[in-house]
């Protein structure tokens, strides 16, 4: 690991966002840079093709805009329509409901205020992201003939972008508010406990490399780093990456931003106070906490935290990542796979022999009913074939690794997954009946009259020593069968 020099190391926990023909590359630490520059090539090939056809920076624009439009859309859809519906009630009724104790119009005003406060962090994230990719807050005006400037990001967000911005903001509650501690306790503590018990004989944990695919807003990566390990997150969603970059690298103090995670939804509240509840983010100041956690350690925490962007099953499948990690931690992640075997093989490939894979989560197959997505930019490569109901007869030609954009998908059960892992070069305790469930919500409002509770499973699999890489092993297996 490279040692950074001078004062810059104090804030080395950075995402430097690099412009690579329109591709942002987010990292926390420079020492990952060379590694990730190589990944960029892979990313370009597998994830963002055909870049040549993209207008420069259009990718960012699509990804950035939602946070600025968040406020407008939220106001319109949430309170404007409700005011109209309210005044459409019989006059005698709305007048009565406008009086105390209900004072419904005041509630709508309070929701408007909450939306404004929500949008303050959304706006900060947006502005930090804009400047990180070299776009201006005040976009260039249209040319005299009315042509929109290519760097004018206004109005570029799609409803899907808005939706993603929305979930991203909700996830701040789970990962970075004090109120989210119960979910984190249920989901992240078992991972840390498994890591600490596995590596209890290592007083210096900095050489131990832990990979967190599907890192979301980065809290688990942060906690693993804070516990002394070298932690690397990986995330495919730019919305998530920009928000985690903001929290980890651009917040000034704990409790900096208010958030009203439940205000937009009017259902299942016991009281208006519940609906309008405010949480503050972040609950800890990441920069300060990592600074504190570095006292007396050989390697500063800022040197031990990183984040890569792109599809896990593509990025970590190359030679460079073979046998590179001591542990892989997946939380609410494996069910994002259209083809779980691809994830299993990738994890096997990038783990050192004897390394562990710690998993916690449910099996909410993200692709159920929809088939794998075709990423917006890989238009030429992933227009999916007409589905066949029987296996193809000829042997398939070798394909480039398209990761989750590959055709095909399958939803497996817990009892099917465990033996599958056991026969993929891992040792894992056999599935018990019933599995040892843990109950937890995911961005759940604890005060709501509706509680969605997952019964998640937590297991640890160990890559068998001397076991070949996933791909080589598959091949071996096929040959012996
Ligand atoms: C359900 S979220 C869980 C996030 C976080 N681990 C948590 O527990 O809050 C799944 C995350 O995985 C990411 N993801 C899905 N498929 C991915 C892939 N192939 N490579 C990397 N990240 C992926 C999604 O963008 C999303 O942030
Ligand atoms: C955000 O999500 C909440 C809860 O799912 C929903 O009620 C609301 O309409 C969404 N808001 C926007 C602006 O998309
Ligand atoms: C707002 O409502 C309109 C009309 O129902 C809908 O098309 C749009 O997607 C909604 N926007 C958001 C951000 O929820
Ligand atoms: C704040 O944002 C979250 C996530 O989009 C949303 O669920 C919540 O309702 C929002 N609150 C307000 C008042 O906008
Ligand atoms: C509001 O929350 C309830 C759960 O309490 C959910 O079923 C409903 O779909 C949500 N409505 C919107 C518009 O998001
Ligand atoms: C708050 C914080 O730590 N900001 C840092 C994020 O990264 C940049 C680039 O290195 C630093 O200059 C900031 O100080």
TrEMBL record:
Query: Sorted alphabetically, which SUPFAM superfamilies does this protein's record hold?
Result: S-adenosyl-L-methionine-dependent methyltransferases
**Which GO biological process entries does UniProt record here?**
methylation
Q: Where is this region: Disordered?
A: 370-408
Q: Transmembrane segments in this chain: where?
A: 32-51
Please, which domain of life does this record's source organism belong to? Eukaryota
This entry's Enzyme Commission designation comes to 2.1.1.22
What family does the entry list?
A: Belongs to the carnosine N-methyltransferase family.
Identification of the protein by name: carnosine N-methyltransferase
